[in-house]
């Protein structure tokens, strides 16, 4: 298996040099790119498409998504070296910060096929959403990132955030119309940092979990957080799960995050699962 490494120099600690130093020690003349942009990444993949079997994304969920969308419905394999703030996709696919382990996986070349999905054409691999967490991501991008800053931004946003209004077009889902703190589209179980928003989600069942969360009182916050970090979040008065393969709805905000990256997306919203569309190294 021939591999190429695509490094986001802006991920997490914004210092790719330790990874590069170790890679150069373990691999003779590795093929790599320190990417300046999505266009840079796209051009690199196109340039080396014929000769490379495994493209390794070195970064967070946004970096991984940028690489993965180029590999959709092809024989090319995605691998990951986690270097983001939350590393949700990496955690869910058993990628660690151990280069030797990663290189051994590449040598074996085994993979699984997983689902991906789109939100109005915006490609996503992990968890995307609107409402509270979309706003948090927007504000989080103004900080130096890191889990502590994420918690600070989340708490500050919670107290000031007004619920969003969601209106489903299909008859079967109209009973869920109403005001919500947030709506998440979960292909895997977690946002990142082992925060499991959809503990029952599967990345290879042809479905995403639509997670509707109503704004809850302050006293419920510790229970919500505890359940989320212990994989025990379930349906109750505030949380609803809707497994879907495709769905449309309207929402009165343009503020979204796609795999943790802030995006403006106009309503109406069309979500569509792309079943078993991506090969991921195991």
Can you offer a commentary on this structure?
The chain is α+β, with helices and mostly antiparallel strands and about 280 residues long. It folds into 2 domains: about 120 residues, Rossmann fold (3-Layer(aba) Sandwich), CATH 3.40.50.10330; about 150 residues, Tumour Suppressor Smad4 (Sandwich). Helix content is about 30%, strand content about 30%. It contains 8 helices and 16 strands. Strands 1, 2, 3, 4, 5, 6, 8, 9, 13 and 16 form a 10-stranded mixed β-sheet that branches. Strands 12-11-10-7-14-15 form a 6-stranded antiparallel β-sheet. Helix 6 packs across helix 7. The chain is globular, with a radius of gyration of 19 Å. The two termini are about 15 Å apart.
In short:
The protein is built from eight helices and 16 strands. By secondary structure, the chain is of the alpha+beta class.
Q: Which helices and strands, and how do they pair?
A:
Elements: E1 3-7, H1 17-26, E2 31-34, H2 38-47, E3 54-59, H3 61-71, E4 77-82, H4 88-92, H5 99-108, E5 111-119, E6 122-124, E7 127-131, H6 132-140, H7 147-160, E8 164-168, E9 178-180, E10 182-186, E11 208-213, H8 221-229, E12 239-244, E13 246-251, E14 255-258, E15 261-264, E16 269-281
Parallel strand pairs: 1-2, 1-3, 3-4, 4-16
Antiparallel strand pairs: 5-6, 5-16, 7-10, 7-14, 8-9, 8-13, 10-11, 11-12, 13-16, 14-15
Helix pairs in contact: 6-7
């Amino acid at each position: 298996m021939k591999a190429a490494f695509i490094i986001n120099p802006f991920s997490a600690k914004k210092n790719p040099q330790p990874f590069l130093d170790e890679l150069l020690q373990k691999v003779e003349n590795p093929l790599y790119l320190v990417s300046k942009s999505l266009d840079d990444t796209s051009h690199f993949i196109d340039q080396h498409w014929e000769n490379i079997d495994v493209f390794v994304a070195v970064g967070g969920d946004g970096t991984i998504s940028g690489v993965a969308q180029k590999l959709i419905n092809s024989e090319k394999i995605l691998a990951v070296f986690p270097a983001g703030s939350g590393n949700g996709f990496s955690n869910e696919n058993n990628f660690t910060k151990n280069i030797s382990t990663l290189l051994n996986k590449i040598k074996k070349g085994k993979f699984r096929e997983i689902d991906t999905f789109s939100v109005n054409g915006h490609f996503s691999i992990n968890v995307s959403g609107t409402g509270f967490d979309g706003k948090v991501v927007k504000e989080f991008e103004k900080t130096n990132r890191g889990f502590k800053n994420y918690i600070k931004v989340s708490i500050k946003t919670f107290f000031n955030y007004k619920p969003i209004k969601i209106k489903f077009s299909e008859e079967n889902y109209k009973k869920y119309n109403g005001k919500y703190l947030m709506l998440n589209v979960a292909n895997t179980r977690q946002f990142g940092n082992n925060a499991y928003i959809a503990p029952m989600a599967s990345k290879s069942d042809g479905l995403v979990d639509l997670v509707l969360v109503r704004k809850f009182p302050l006293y419920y916050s510790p229970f919500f957080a505890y359940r989320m970090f212990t994989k025990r979040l379930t349906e109750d008065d505030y949380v609803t799960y809707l497994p879907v393969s495709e769905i449309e709805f309207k929402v009165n905000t343009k503020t979204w995050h796609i795999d943790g990256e802030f995006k403006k997306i106009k309503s109406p919203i069309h979500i569509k699962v792309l079943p078993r569309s991506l090969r991921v190294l195991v």
